[in-house]
Amino acid sequence: MRGNSDDNAPNIPLLKLIDCSLRVSVIPLSIATIWLTVTNHQDNTSYGKLHFSNFMGLKYMVWISAISAVYACVAAVSSWIKCLVSKAWLFFVSDQIVTYLMVTSVAAVMEMVFLAYKGDKAVSWSEACASYGKFCSRMKLALVLHSLALFSFLVLAVISAYRVFSMCEAPSVSHKEVELEENTT
Q: How many CA atoms lie within 13 A of 18 on its CB side?
């Protein structure tokens, strides 16, 4: 007699599968962000050559993308190692740090993209994308990919917070403590 096909399936909790899938998805998103940014350059006969290294915000995004890709890879592998899985607080703190770093890099590049497309007439900055359309398009695409990686880390931060705080017991309050609290106020 054959067993149920569900009996042969590995018993992997859904949350762990989502966690690992998100971590693995960050790796190609970050690598694509790095590649698009580092290879982004355009030459304009009127204004000269533009390269990603001319912008601190783009260099920052490349570094944060590299950090997030390496961390996502290490964390995905570590999530299957028994001794590290029990250290939920380690993933919680690390996920929070990487998420905050990614928020700052997305914000920096988002401001650059906005200024490149719209300019700032108050300080006499004209829009650059009229002259550097290819550069701006690639920068915008890199920002979208980096934002998707950020979204993955936001979800991972929630998952790791859930794991840490679900290990704690809820505070218990007795009926007498509630009565005493009400009588003192």
A: 12
- Measured CA to CA, the distance from residue 28 to residue 162 in angstroms comes to 26
**Helix and strand totals (H; E) in the chain:** 7, 2
pLDDT single digits (tens) 124-172:
777 888 888 899 999 999 999 999 999 999 999 999 888 888 777 766 6
At residue 124, what are phi and psi to the nearest 5 degrees? 65, 35
CA distance 181 to 42: 69
pTM here? Answer: 0.80
Cα radius of gyration (the chain)? 24
Beta-bridge mates of residue 125: 120
- Closest by CA position to 85, among listed 8, 13, 149, 24: 13
With beta carbons less than 8 A apart as the criterion, state whether 61 and 146 touch. Answer: yes
Residues 30-73: tens digit of each pLDDT: 999 999 999 999 988 888 898 989 999 999 999 999 999 999 99
Beta strands in 34-164 (DSSP E): 41-44, 48-51
Residue whose entry in the numeric block shows the structure tokens 């906005």: 114
Residue 8 has pLDDT above 80, yes or no: no
List Cβ neighbours of 180 (8 Å cut-off, separation of 6 or more): none
First to last CA, the chain: 69
